[in-house]
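Anyone able to model this chain together with manganese (II) ion?
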Amino acid sequence: MKTRNIKTVAEGNWVVEGAGVKLKRILGLGDPALTDPFLLLDNFGSADPADYMAGFPWHPHRGIETVTYMLEGAVAHGDSLGNSGLIKSGQVQWMTAGSGIVHQEMPKAYEGTMRGFQLWINLPKKHKMTRPRYRDISAESIPEAAGPGYKMKVICGDYGGVSGPAQDIVIQPWFFDVKADAGAEFTLDVRPEDTVLVCVFEGKGYFDKDKERLIEPGQLAVMGEGEALACSASGEGMRFLLLAGRPLKEPIAWRGPIVMNTEHELKTAFEEYRKGTFLKK
Ligand code: MN
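re: yes, here you go
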């Protein structure tokens, strides 16, 4: 069985997004073909509400899915489908923007460090204009798979006979939160056709068999080809997101919150937004 090596490591950059939210953009500034079908990964984490309270007021999305995973804290949201509520610690919001959704995402002041992720997954050409869909996933509904030295929250996808609650996602991605014990060494089977990304957010460890490149919190390793992922946690253990999905290999036209296949489709989307005809039914 061929073990994957590390192709490259993304360090991320601090950016200011929305109405003035300071966050670390781990993916989304480089070549999207490298991480296809994943477009963007933001890691927010701050103990100072001034870094995040401005939030992300009303804005559109089209052509993608956005997945918000709150580790700690709460984000109030509302959208053009009529959904509103709070995404709290341990919860996931899985939003399929499809043909178009307009929403706002406003973090609440939190005592302690507010932290979490937002991932953007591309939709294939034939599903870009699909009907928008929204799912709230409670912390309790996320099952765990376990193996020697690790436990894994299965949010989307199947692993070890455990199925995640985010069902019927068109590209059938994996979205797992893996917690490895101190010093644990184990191998995870991965689908050979997938792009595989690992983003460490607690502790540190290795994903290359030769243990040449230590991956630290906030770093994301883009893995090369193979059927297995060798994981090796440091003495403090580690926790990481494991993201996997089959590449779409389609042209990408991307501006801000909208990702289509052609410039013309992008232009149409922004024109429709301006004219008030953006939302389809
Ligand atoms: Mn958004």
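The pocket of manganese (II) ion is lined by residues 56, 59, 61, 66, 103, 105, 257 (CB under 6 Å).
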